[in-house]
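User:
I study polymers; will you set down one protein's sequence and backbone structure tokens?

Assistant:
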Amino acid sequence: MIAPTSFFADYGCHVRILEEALALRSLGHRITICTYHNGDDVAGLDIRRSLDVPWRKGVQVGSSRHKLYFDAMLSLQAVRTALALRPHIIHAHLHEGALIGSVAARLLGVPLLFDYQGSLSAEMLDHRFLQPNSLFLGPTRRIEQQLNRSADLVITSSHHAARRLLQEERLPDGQVRAVPDAVNTERFHPRVLSRADRAALRARLGIGPERQVVVYLGLLAPYQGTDLLLEAARQVVAALPNAFFLIMGYPGTDTYARQAARLGLAHHTSFPGRIPYTEAHRYLALGDVAVAPKLSLTEGAGKIYNYIAMGLPVVAFDTPVAREILGGDGYYARPGDAAGLADQLLRLLRNPASARGRTERLRRRAEADYSWRQRGGELDAIYHMLIARRQAVLTTAE
């Protein structure tokens, strides 16, 4: 695997990379992950890091000019590792990974699988690395389109993304397959904390026993809807003073805490920062309602899978990916509408029992259709298919 990111760093695409690797390892695959120099090691995984950059030790999130030399050094590590190990397949995450992987795959004559997790140009716009009128946007989109066609197969983190590649990017039907995000349903479930442990953790975070808690766990950024979430929180608290918002994640924790204070939410919010993925289920167990205000139209929404496995009702902006996961059992607001988000949160906080049927259906759906164990089986079949296809081509050529 090629992961052009600071793996592991307790968020979104890192969780997908980790859970795919663990699921494949359980099926007998030997996985080697080439990634940036920074990030946390994971016990039991073979992680090969690029050359250390002492002046950039922090986790790299999103688009940045620093990624240019990060990716250059990762290219050297990935090609060197591929030549040494001679893998049967190159599994490339993100567009930079597809670029690096295409070189390694050609050198070895093995299949390239591109794990697509959203549009490269859309991510740059979301992170405000590029502006809509930038001269670089057109060339970036053309490079992105070329990379989308570079792999033997593209797998996507949602059916919506697969449809987009087929309809808008006009990739051939046989070159795209949806392998949606999933959840570890054995760890994320409604009964992970005893009543005493739940009370103790709430107290540690300054959450009184009378509070009704809205939980969010993910990156903190405008495109994630964090600013809109705080505005919605202000409206919720004005109508329901015992409401409390546990907003977990990073970066910009202090910035958003100060913004919450300016909105009069200092005593109604907690920003504990980065939560280890191994502890995420314990913190989500403190919630009565979960919220997913992400605005991106091309990326996945892995946090929603964790929410529903925990048995939490979910309020989200009505995006194609949120609708794909939650169906008719979600609670939706128009994208960008903070007042609508607040209305749906108030609806659930005022009448928690009304959501029971929906949460039970979503939990059953998570167990039946959204487990990483199931996704591992799908990837195993894809690997064998791609390897067999390549061997058939080589045999015909001979």
Notes: The mean pLDDT is 93.
